[in-house]
Each structure stands twice: as structure tokens, then as C-alpha cells.
# Entry
Amino acid sequence: MAERQRPVGVIGTGLMGTACARRLLAAGFEVLGYDTDAGKLDAFVALGGRAARSVAEIARASNPVVIAVFNTDQVEDTIEGPLGLLATRPADSPPLTAICVSTCDPDRIAALVARLPAARLRYVEAPVSGTSEQTARGESLGLIGGEPAAAEAARDVIDAICPRWHHLGAAGNGGRAKLAINLILGINRAALAEGLVFAERMGLAPEAFLKVARESAAYSQIMDIKGAKMLKGDFSPQGYATQTLKDFSLMLELARRLKQQLPLGETYAGLMKGCVAAGEGALDNSAVIKEIRRRAT
# Structure
């Protein structure tokens, strides 16, 4: 089978993997997916995808492959592990293109790309800026890093997932941009939640206040994406609190390496730790408002 006639593989059919699959299916691609969670894989099949039984099946049958797993450890294992893409891809196959949309440690991704055999696998770093719902609607921004030729070869798949994207240079730069953007977003979420709680405590009607805030100098897109969720208590996940805590922990670790304090980042990580400790890790990250409400004196 010609490589471009093969299905696109998706490894990890959680929130972001499923959003990517929706975009690919809508663009007319056949999509073959794998996840260790049978429930998530069943939901993926209900959308019109085909289920694979293993990463090995993805490696044999698909090209390119979208990787949408939780963290850097899982990305490395998916590619380099004993049951990963490199180990299970047939030796005589053309190079496999792996498009990784996970938010990862950028230094480790740069090191991973440096040791990958180019004749076997081409890595396109492609974290996206946007919630899973924004991604499913085609509104997210792709932050691409790595060899331009590899990204260009997978342009049709990247375009299907993120119609808007920027190539930011060497592998690792996509992740660096994603972490800095997520730092800004998280702090904005916390500021919105704190402002809503403060307004409510002062006796203002929360819905009316949010409407006014949207027209004020304080406006940000976060008000549109998360404001109503916070006020309605609708914490159905667009991005899990546990995932946000993972990202902020990664930011703080990278900042320590760079000898740069992130005081607001540290505060937000503390809020997310409070959510997770309260059993809210599987809720949307807008649940930060619950932790702020708990901090009444």
C-alpha cells in the first residue's frame, strides 16, 4: 500500500487525541486509533475511527501517526519503548512521520529528536494552543518545531488538525512556546476566577458582572471560553486539572533550570494542587474557581 493511502494513526484517544481524530475524519482521512483505555477507544470508534489493538498495529498500518499522550515519558515510550513505534515498524518500511501534539519537556524532546534514526522516523513537534473543543472546531493554533521538510511532508494532516500554524524552528521550540503560552493562559484563568469570586462576595450578580467585564479593559478570550463554565459550575473537561498541573510543574522545573522564578506560575500551580487534592483532577481546569472559593477566611 502506498504510504499516503494508509490511514492516519492516532495514539491516545483522550480529549486532544479525539479532537484531532474529529478533524481528520471531517477532512476525509481514514483514522486508526489506539488507547490503553478501552472506554476512550470505544468512544473514538463511535465517531467513525477504526480501533487498533496495539501501538505495533499502528506502526505497521499507518503513516503518519499523531501522538496525543499525557507526558514526555509516554512520548518517549511510544516511540522508543520495546513495544513502541521504532521497535515494531517493519525494517523495510519507509520512514514513519510522527506528529506529536502532546505538551512535553522541550529539552527532552530536542534530545529525543537528535537520537532518532532519520531513515526510520521523522518527528514533527506539534503542540496546539487551544482547548480540545477549540481544536475540534479548527480554532486552535499549531506550534510546530523540527525539520521543515518533515512538517511540509505532513502538511495535509497538520492543516486538517490546525488550519492555523507557525513553524518555530528547531525541535523543542514548539514546546517552549506552548509552555509560555500556557503560563499566560493559566494565570488568566486564575485572575478571571478570582475576579468573579470577588465580585460575587461584594454582592454583584455574577452573570451581569461577567457581561460587563467582557466589555471592559480587562477583557480576554478566557472570559468567553471559561467564564460561563465557572459561573454554571459546568466542569465537564476541555482540559483536565491534572493535565494543567502537569504542565505547570513542567514550567516550574524548566524555570529552575534557567534560574528564573515564576511567582505567578507558582501560585497557580498551588491552586491546581488544591483542586487535585480535593478530588477534582478529572474536572476542567476552570475548576480553579472552586479552589479560590475554598480560600475564604
Summary: The mean pLDDT is 96. The chain is about 55% helix and 10% strand. The beta strands are 8-11, 31-34, 50-51, 65-67, 96-100, 121-125, 128-129, 141-144, 164-167.
